[in-house]
Amino acid sequence: MHRLLLLSCLWLLAAPPASTIFQRPTGTPAPLRLQYLLEPLHPTVHTQRGATAILPCVLRTLPHNYRVKWSKVEPTNYRENIIIITNGLYHKNYGPLSPRVRLRHSHRYDASLTITNVALEDEGRYRCQLVNGLEDESILLTLHLEGVVFPYQPSNGRYKFNYHEAKQACEQQDSRLATYQQLYKAWTEGLDWCNAGWILDGTVHYPIINSREPCGGRLLLPGVRTYGARDKQKDRFDAFCFTSALQGQVYFIRGHLNFKEAGQACRNHGAAIAKVGQLYSAWKFSQLDRCDGGWLADGSVRYPITIPRERCGGLPDPGVRSFGFPSKEMRTYGTYCFMGK
Q: Is the CB of residue 113 less than 8 Å from the CB of residue 104?
């Protein structure tokens, strides 16, 4: 008995591997009713970038020599990266989330996970696992960020990104590659785009609301069309990026500015020229509505429309309109600036 207790203590103190893989063997029956953990009332927690999110995990009772382990299920490889381990008295944090996570501990049965300053990459599935010898059990929760998905391509045209370039391009525009769930939700909300793009798991898709000849034909039903997994190095497509709420403000400066002058105009106000993701975020969350084309950090010219009207592009739906990538010497447009909090 003393030997088992000693091994249990040593296991808690030992640093675990950076990641583990959870896989139920084929034919294993569904887990029994939880004995030690309460089923969460709401398995999906909704939040925004910059907020504080709490993932609930509450024990019914405190078994002897138990541990609670929190981990995040990564969508790109299905591995589980350990975040925190506790035995009720002591805890240890692991991985890149370490500085921003803590246990809520509102009472002695509470092992809920608190994530501060939520980031785009925090979205996903989390596991709270009670480790108690042969009676381990766990619950899965989903952290869902409210946000917006937008298609993105570079100045030199469509289908220029391999996977890694697409990932970098989204990150440079204050966003990240969208997950399939985010792209699907955007399709249900009206995203209709004929160009295929990379998403986070390395697959390629395009969302179609109105079936038409150039986009797979009129006979195919609306939906998120898929090319499946592609070669991340060789194959080239556009990107679908995802962004969430801003910690700051996007505003417009009127003028007839070239690209260099646009950047300087923002800096003169103590701001920076806005990125594409920041403009989409301001349109989505702050209802930014302007009929004026303005320079953005990638050299494109766009404008956000919340209330569609004839003289502002004439399109019937709200959205961020684009004039593409005009010559950076052209003095025709104003600029959109971003001022962080």
A: yes
